């Protein structure tokens, strides 16, 4: 017998519909198995689709499973922010005054809310793991850039659940010229898992960024919250953060692909890795129903 599953599409890390990073959220996904969830994510073909289920960890408001068109994610930023917004909007988590926890594959992810006309929703970045560094000339070559386009900072592999290679370049023009495909990823292989490449330049506001993830079925991602915490740690350790006190900045991402996203970063602690929060606004766009056999 066919069953209807209601879902929402929201744009995350923006206050403007049709910008930011689109996300589909199924707020009541009981009855869907893993294969069907992956099929739905492939069918909708957004960067990620999230499915809300009863929690399995004590103290969590909900369990969230997150899928790209090709893989399930241990953790992802814009699905965490966007799903939190849907839970709040639908009254499924009515008391958010003290924050709450979402049950994801990586563990319990803390969420807090700055309330207002447009709530600013924050997630706490999971522990960041550091990996190998890469030759500057190799990184430039696989990104179809010149060695002179890169800052003199060795690219590095970091992960907070979403393995990513970070490459710092000199200006926005170099960010916009960068490109990488699956062949290029193989030359930067730093993990057996699928991974992303994050290209950025420091700005007075924080950073101007792009992220490529062809192994996840995402040619380019408009906003990558799971990589923005590690970005902040990478920048802090290398003195690349400017601004009033270096503890809060904004990463602008997705502008090149006409999906401008603003990812807010709040750094708490002394060494840039003690506690990093990534926050963003959410713009609702679609309410729909999917009928499945």
Tag the structure with descriptive keywords.
Diaminopimelate Epimerase, Chain A, domain 1; alpha+beta; 293 residues; single chain; 6 helices
Could you outline the blueprint of secondary structure elements for this entry?
Blueprint: E1 3-12, E2 21-26, H1 34-44, E3 48-53, E4 62-67, E5 72-73, H2 77-89, E6 100-104, E7 107-114, E8 120-124, E9 129-133, H3 136-142, E10 156-159, E11 164-168, H4 172-177, H5 182-187, E12 196-202, E13 206-213, E14 218-221, H6 225-237, E15 248-253, E16 261-268, E17 275-280, E18 282-292
Parallel strand pairs: 2-3, 4-6, 11-12, 13-15
Antiparallel strand pairs: 1-2, 1-18, 3-4, 4-5, 6-7, 7-8, 8-17, 9-10, 10-11, 12-13, 13-14, 15-16, 16-17
Q: What is the fourth-level CATH superfamily of the largest domain? A: Diaminopimelate Epimerase, Chain A, domain 1
Query: Structural class of the helices, strands and pairings?
Result: alpha+beta
Identify low-pLDDT runs.
none
* Oligomer type: single chain
Total domains = 2
Order of helices and strands: EEHEEEHEEEEHEEHHEEEHEEEE
**Tally of alpha and pi helices:** 6
Largest sheet: 18 strands, mixed
Shape: globular
Give the end-to-end Cα distance, rounded to a whole number of Å: 6 Å
CATH topology of the largest domain: Diaminopimelate Epimerase, Chain A, domain 1
Relative strand content: 35-45%
Find the count of extended strands (DSSP E, 2+ residues): 18
CATH class of the largest domain: Alpha Beta
**Rg calculated over all Cα atoms:** 18 Å
